[in-house]
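Dear Dr. H.,

I hope your travels went smoothly. While you were away I took the liberty of generating a structure for the chain from your last submission, since the lab meeting agenda had it listed for discussion. I wanted you to have the full record in hand beforehand rather than looking at slides cold. The sequence, exactly as received, is reproduced here:
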Amino acid sequence: MGQQLTRTTKSAVLFLIISLGFALVWASQSFASDKDEEAGIQDPIQIQDTLEIQDSILRQIEAFANNDGEQAWSYASEGIKRRFGSSQVFLEMVREAYPAVHNATQIEFTESVPHGTFQIQVVKLKGPEGKSWDAYYRMVQVEDVWKIAGVSLQPADIGI
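The corresponding predicted structure, in token form, is as follows:
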């Protein structure tokens, strides 16, 4: 009976050690992923999406700079296309209402924030008169291609 109790005790201790080991590994992975998020480390899919989003925005801004309405129109979402109806109307609207986008002299991509079915890409722009702007691009993915679904533009907070 003493030997049986010893085996049972050893099994229980071994089970506890293994369980504790798994718990420690699981906890360290949870903490590591929390630290990764705090450090700004993203998963490869998120990084790829961010690069594709930035590429779409940059190419549209280049198309505006070249007055290429058809090319700029190709980066617009279906909602934008329904709203404006043609590349010519769209180009004219951007030229009039968003001169900092149409004639940007400097572009800096900052944070990209996922929101479920869409993402917001923040872009710092310098407009044609040297004014700084923050542009918030609403991006949607359609058939694995990121399209621009809208832009909110506001004067940049220059700070002190």
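Two observations you may find useful: The mean pLDDT is 81. The helical segments are 2-38, 44-65, 69-73, 78-84, 87-97, 99-102.

With kind regards,
E. W.
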